[in-house]
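Structure tokens please, single chain.
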Amino acid sequence: MSIELTWLGHGGWSIKTSSHTVLLDPFVTHCPTATCKANELEADFILVSHGHEDHIADVPAIAKRTGAQVLANFEITQWLTRVHSIENVLPMNTGGTVEIAPGHVKMTNAFHSSSLPDGAYGGSPAGFLCEFEKKHIYFACDTAFFSDMRYISRHTIDLAIVPIGDTFTMGPLESLDAIRQIRPHKVAPAHYNTWPPIQQDAHLWARMVLEETTSQPIVIPPGGKIVL
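Here you go.
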């Protein structure tokens, strides 16, 4: 069965399997590059990588409207319950794997920071390695490059999503190091061109990926889709 991924803009994604829809870090209502609004998104599950507003701002409204289960670190799930009265949460932490209806979700390391919109502690930032429809998709989320990314390649990674914006995450050059460690069949960029500090030329990045790695780059605009 195929999987359809839609880039929501910035760091957000919608992942549709044969039977469920999973959102990752949906931030669309106040995202200048997004092509939809939060009230247009459906979800059965929501993955939250860390607490920054540009990753969690739309999560409470979507979770309440859809009844989606929210998967995030313990601190974020506690905050969602305490501040937003969201009870359908699944707390986890780095290194843990949980099984949900579409498949398996493993929380991986990310080198970043994490605080919640009201200043509360947001726990450790994370990425996600998902196995849906027998395909492995790695979302590096907001992170610097780190050499332990090589352990992700123990799995055959069908698609990796890496940030390239620089300033707040790794940039295009560091992403090449990450791609060489992860060795995905396909790779797509995220977390760029939302605001001037993270402006990047994704097509130049794609040429570098072709020249310097064994992965196939995929560049799509916000609202664009990738089918695996």
